[in-house]
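Morning F.,

Quick status update on the modeling queue. The single chain you submitted on Monday has been processed. Sequence for confirmation:
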Amino acid sequence: MGDDGGKMVADMLNSQIIKNRIVGGQKIELAKCEFYSCMLVINKAAAQTDNS
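C-alpha cells below.
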C-alpha cells in the first residue's frame, strides 16, 4: 500500500480509527488499534488488483 499504507499504520498506532478509505487501491472498511490489539478490515470485493 506504499507510503499511504505506512501513514495509515502510523495513524492506527496513534489511536486513530480509519473507516471507509481507499489506501493504495484497497478499500479499508476499518482500521484501528486498541487494548494491545490492531484490526485491519479490507473489503475484498472492492479491492483492486494488478490485473485490473
